[in-house]
Amino acid sequence: MNPVNLASKNKQISVVIATCDRRARLLSLLRDLDASTCPLAEVIIVDSGDDKLSPGDYSIFKGLAIQYVTSERSVCIQRNTGIKMAKSPWVLLCDDDIEIPEDYVEKLFEYANLHSEAGAISGLWLEKENNEWKATHPIHSTRRLLWAYFFQLGIWGEIECRDNFFNKGIKKYYKRKGNHISRAGWPVNTDFSSDHIICPVYSLGASLVKRQWLMHNLFDEVLDRHGIGDNYGVTTSLPFPGVHVVKTTFVHHHLEPANRLKRSLQYYRRVLALDYFIKTKKRLLDNKRSRLLWSLLGNMPGFILSGNGKMAGANFKAMWKIATGKNPYYLGNKQGKKIIEPAL
Fold first, then answer.
1. Neighbouring residues of 115: CB distance < 8 A, sequence distance ≥ 6
2. How many angstroms separate the CA atoms of 97 and 63, rounded?
3. E strands along 85-156, which residues?
4. Nearest-5° angle of CA 169, CA 149, CA 315?
5. Residue ranges of E strands in 83-119
6. Is the distance from CB of 242 to CB of 91 less than 8 angstroms?
7. pTM reported for the whole predicted model
8. β-pair type (13-19, 42-47)
9. Which of 241, 230, 228, 227 is nearest to 199 (CA)?
10. Mean pLDDT of 3-13
11. What is the CATH number that goes with domain 6-133+195-253?
12. Who's near 209: CB < 8 A, 6+ residues apart?
């Protein structure tokens, strides 16, 4: 990339951090931001937790102009509060349990200057699995590929199974489609071949986004306090669809256990959020409830055969709520409610 004058970046980026009772991780993130090679106009922390920071806790970060405000517990409301407060044309959305390199923001901003069409930009989002940091989950099995295709399930990784009679046509299908949203509504990100890619849905937890875009597409406050499914709702509403992912930089997501829901409840709420967005987002009008239900049917055998009764139960209850038109998010939205928390 061509070098960009760092001085020109000053006052161009506001950081927004939504946090709740993750003091150690939050302070670690502030240290990362304080070491950033790209000047930041301000850092807005919106805290909904009980373990609040004091001015003495964050005044040590001399390179950061920190604004610290409190909020009710809702990741979506907290992010929206910070976005509305931001004074810069770009907003760096940060989850509170990420770790970023010192040149991370600089690389995203350089990309933004070279690609005027890009309004949402992220580095690779890495999570630890079996003691290894991974950005993707490649498909190596023809059986798994056929199952994903038949039930229009999501894929988050390269298709690396060998060509054979059964998969050759399907591999061509995915190559032709590129990164897209399946007919059931699930993200399908299979092309990670170039230095930068565009994904229709990607984490916004370490993303640089045009503030104007966010102001017209705020996070949906009907979602639960944890914001399960929130990134999907925003990314599928942006003026230029998709998140530009710059593969030359990355962020480590530490999956802090504090304030994290159990996997079955996360899954249940994520499915309901997907159904809710399919009903309410114009860009998703081609995705039908029947196709989503079909995909959930495809998930069921895996849960049952692995002996995961909680996930099977969550899947069945989600199917029932969707099939009967009783999605709590959709009903709550019609009644003007916020922070709906569907229970298993």
1. 244
2. 20
3. 90-95, 98-99, 120-129, 132-134, 155-156
4. 170
5. 90-95, 98-99
6. no
7. 0.94
8. parallel
9. 241
10. 58
11. 3.90.550.10
12. 90, 91, 92, 93, 119, 120, 121
